[in-house]
């Protein structure tokens, strides 16, 4: 979309035109400007101090009128006067009623409206032009197959694969739902005149995923101009974003902060996010990052478990476990793993019952009591064999982590091919290193946890531990 020709990329506005757009639509800058940071032009545009700034000033650095916020609420308002937008949102059904579905649909329509061939599609609004200031983000979904192979053994590899599958399902949902709408058929899907491709859907996803922030009163949304600010964690975060009592967007300098003229005004995208999520959603890692911080590893129920089909059917938990830093060590959490480690001999059972409307459903039981699988851990903690269940779970995690370590080590020392770009290479290399270090720490932590469980329990646990490891 927004193309010179079908094989070329989106047409963009130069960033030095942004102040004109902002002034015309009521966006106010107070001591800041937007553009590339001198010496770091390759990083794209950011928010820069136009003079020396000191915290404590009640006047916002950036003021954004509430009707410019790309939120679910405002999209619903636009749809009331733009029948093309309303037509698409209604056509895609449940997806259009989600914030993500509404925002991506809105962005896609704005991109369509910028094409010279589509003069009579949509109602022009200020955001039609704003999206042309947004750069294309090199998120991992845009990496080549060769570049994605660099991620083998990392938690980012399955995450990218799952995301691409999800995006493809969304794209096909959009195609199927709108193919019967005349203007969509002509400008999006027609073999000769259609302009929409899967790459375009990935672009609007990248726009939203890399720029959406959660604002009080507005929820997840894109805040024009504020969303140009780069991320910095901890004390390096220079500014806060929020909404005022009228719902307008604000960028405020933190108390006690002083930014010299020419300095960068940063915000936080979330200090608790791990290395994998930062690369996945934003396409970067801070230089100061020294830990993967948090990882999610998938876990499966063994094929030889006779209760496997029933367990899969009733499970509502993510099929895996999360390891994370806590007080300078590694800890873990998982709701799913407890379903994996218990069996019929322990007291787990399933029964099929018929509902009042004639349908059949599977119900889980623990020691002949109806079981809420969302509270499975609570039920197990009160069982005399709780130490056994803990030991099984920890050993299972240990084995899974060691498998991941072996997979990561296979990819170490890979040679860089000339076709691999610099950014994917550097990010993949750093992620492999950070995750390997965290996994090795996890093995040590799990060994300690196993010893603790065994030492405070009856002697037969030692035998159970040896058998499970051997």
State the gist of this model.
The protein is of the alpha+beta class and 470 residues long. It contains 16 helices and 16 strands. Mean pLDDT is 88; it is low at 2-9.
Could you please describe the fold and organization of this structure?
Helix content is 41%, strand content 14%. With 470 residues, the chain is an alpha+beta fold. It has two domains: 15-259, set domain protein methyltransferase, domain 1 (Alpha-Beta Complex); 290-344 and 375-469, set domain protein methyltransferase, domain 2 (Alpha-Beta Complex), CATH 3.90.1420. Helix 2 (72-81) packs across helix 3, helix 4 packs across helix 9 (198-211) and helix 14 packs parallel to helix 16 (460-469). The N and C termini lie far apart (58 Å). The model is unreliable at 2-9 (pLDDT under 50).
Rounded mean pLDDT score = 88
Uncertain regions: pLDDT < 50 for 5+ in a row? 2-9
Structural class: alpha+beta
CATH architecture of the largest domain: Alpha-Beta Complex
Describe the largest sheet.
4 strands, antiparallel
By CATH reckoning, the class of the largest domain would read Alpha Beta
Number of helices: 16
CATH topology call of the largest domain: set domain protein methyltransferase, domain 1
Strand arrangement within the widest β-sheet reads 1-5-9-8
**What best-fitting shape do the alpha-carbon axes yield?**
globular
Percentage of β-strand residues: 5-15%
- Count of the domains: 2
The N- and C-terminal alpha carbons lie at a distance of: 58 Å
Helix content: 40-55%
Spatial extent as radius of gyration: 26 Å
CATH superfamily (homologous) name of the largest domain? set domain protein methyltransferase, domain 1
Number of strands: 16
